[in-house]
Amino acid sequence: MNRKLITILLCLLAVTLSACSKAETIDGTWAMVRQEYDDGTVYEGDSLPVNEYYIIDGDKAKYICRRPGAEKDVSFSLNVAEVSKGEYEFKVGDRLTFQTGKIEGKQLKFDMGDGQVFYFEKTDEVPDRTTAETEPAEKQTVTPDCAEETVTTATEENSDMAEENALKVIKEVSHIDVSSLPEGYNYAFDEPAQISKVTEYLNGLHLISRYSENPNEYDGMTWVVELSNKDGVKQTIYLFGNMFVRADAGPWFKLDYEEAEAFEKVLGKQ
């Protein structure tokens, strides 16, 4: 075998090895496949409590969170920037960074820094919601960044509720679970003093029903506050983008700026 042929074969081998070892790119649809927690708890496959997806195209991404039994997905837009080789920063707007992911092999890894690690892998597409998870169209209400939905504001249901608290917080709350979308916060309150602080705040809100803003056009984190009482009655309050609030599947109300600012302080983990 002459030297020229050997050289050609070596070049072909190098090209083949290069193609086989090509690093995964960030563009595409990523689905959560595994969650790890500092206490050793691991969720994967069908045991995952939520299904999360990132649809990434260049410097833009869409985050989708699908909770079992929820009426609709929670989703919003993100900006993406590569901060080092294979490491990407996901931002809400231009300033607020809520997650940094790193490509490791075929996975996109999010290390939350508190013992929580989430793993994503490429998938062809976000699966359709099943019939069981989807409410009839006439019962659906808007979820942040659901681009083709009609916004249902409080004005359309009751135009006289602008200065009246319409959350109708349940009575005798005995337990509060606090979480966020995207995931990052997850804790609970059982102390009567803290529960009273939260319920008094919610009951005292001045909700704005007439507003020109469209919740679909805003990005941001969603606080999820689940209230439970001794009779087993539950109610979920959502605060989206530090601007809009609703109870369960009710209409979105706009919050007064100062009251919205106080939300995180009241809900802050003590």
List the helices and strands and how they pair.
Elements lengths: L2 H18 L7 E9 L5 E3 L6 E7 L2 E7 L7 E11 L2 E6 L3 E9 L2 E5 L5 E7 L30 H4 L15 E9 L4 E4 L2 H12 L3 E2 L13 E8 L4 E7 L3 E4 L5 E3 L1 H11 L3
Antiparallel strand pairs: 1-2, 1-3, 1-9, 3-4, 4-5, 5-6, 6-7, 7-8, 8-9, 10-11, 10-13, 12-16, 13-14, 14-15, 15-16
Could you name the ranges where pLDDT drops below 50 across 5 or more consecutive residues?
Answer: 15-21, 131-163
Strand order of the main beta sheet, please?
Answer: 1-3-4-5-6-7-8-9
Number of helices: 4
The N- and C-terminal alpha carbons lie at a distance of: 76 Å
The radius of gyration is 23 Å
> What global shape is seen?
globular
Helix content: 10-25%
Mean pLDDT: 76
**Secondary-structure element series:** HEEEEEEEEEHEEHEEEEEH
- The overall strand count is 16
- Coarse structural class: alpha+beta
What can you see in these coordinates?
The chain contains four helices and 16 strands. By secondary structure, it is of the alpha+beta class. The strands form two sheets. It has an eight-stranded antiparallel β-barrel with strand order 1-3-4-5-6-7-8-9. A seven-stranded antiparallel beta sheet has the order 11-10-13-14-15-16-12. The radius of gyration is 23 Å and the shape is globular.
What attributes does this structure have?
8-stranded antiparallel beta barrel, 4 helices, alpha+beta, 7-stranded antiparallel β-sheet, 270 residues, 17% helix, globular
